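[Automated response] Your request has been received and processed.

Submitted sequence:
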Amino acid sequence: MSDQAHIAKPSNDEIPHEMLDLAGAIDSLPEGYRTELAPFMTRVIESTRRRRRILSLVQDALSQLRLDMKYLAFDLEATRRERDDYRQKLEEAS
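Generated structure:
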């Protein structure tokens, strides 16, 4: 059996259970079928990993955006309070 005919065992946290089952089923096929199907399954597994990494990056970016927006809202409110205090002092001085 050649090395390319076998599908690399993906870790369970990265790949859905159904895909692991499919990879196992393909790995149990006769050599000719396995050799033909294994590259496709490998590409699907790599694509799934890539999508999960992208999803994780997007979720991290959204979390950072939410935090940045909270800081900006706080800063805006502080700036408004400072402006109102300054206006009140100007009115009292006049």
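Summary generated for your ticket: Helices lie at 17-27, 31-93. The chain has one domain: 3-93.
If you did not submit this request, please reply to this message.
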